[in-house]
Amino acid sequence: MILCFSGTGNSRYIAKKIADELQDEIVDMNAKIKATDYSPMKTGRNIIVVVPTYAWRIPQIVSEWLCKTELLSAERIWFVMDCGGEIGNAAKYNRHLAEQKHLWYMGTAQVIMPENYIAMFGAPKAEEARKIVRNAEPAIMDIIAHIKAEQPFAVPRNNLYDRLMSGPVNPIFYHFFVKSDAFRTDATCVGCGQCVKNCPLNNITLKDRKPVWGKQCTHCMACICYCPTEAIEYGKKSVGKPRYHFEQLESR
């Protein structure tokens, strides 16, 4: 079984590639988290978790969901993390999570995909993003080969910088930077509610046909990147930056 969480489609794309090759099922963790559904799940022996990298680890909301959800019949777990740059020492925390779930840890693999975190970085334009995805294909196929052979992934890089970013920096980053206060809309907002639909934490509501953000944001960037009129900004940090979601690469 493949468990996938995705903000703007990169992880969904990787999960689908893996599912197609393994002829396996994808479970949408976005939907499970949005519905606060922690009911036990009947799984096969192998679990593949495909997620983006948030502050050099898997998203906190994914860790929480996995901790609370019983994975029946599961024996082994692989972690696949896409990122715009690096995953740090995320493998250490994934191993701990596997041990907590009494699962055999089969490793953590990194896939470089187009950046979407426009609250801090710039997102690539469509053609550059397509090139990044093409360059990611060998890594994805290597991941698939290891899972097919039921082999562990190669041990990822683990230097002082990686340990620092995934260790003390991760909670500091969440505390000081992962907030929704800076989200706002401009006059081009049409009140379509797409942001409400896409938010995995039910953190957005419509008031007078305008989105209002609560305090439970995970910075997945789904609201800002899927807005059909690009009416949402994250303070001044997103102004003038391309919006990125994977599906736009397939529609042009």
The chain-level mean pLDDT equals 96
Output the radius of gyration: 18 Å
Reported CATH architecture of the largest domain: 3-Layer(aba) Sandwich
N→C terminal distance: 31 Å
* Count of discrete domains: 2
Helix content: 25-40%
Shape: globular
Quaternary form = single chain
Sheet with the most strands: spatial strand order: 2-1-4-6-7
Low-confidence regions: none
Enumerate how many helices there are, as a single number.
9
Strand content: 15-25%
Specify the CATH class of the largest domain: Alpha Beta
Please report the total strand number as a whole number: 11
Protein name: Ferredoxin
Function: Ferredoxins are iron-sulfur proteins that transfer electrons in a wide variety of metabolic reactions.
GO molecular function: 4 iron, 4 sulfur cluster binding; metal ion binding
Cofactor: [4Fe-4S] cluster
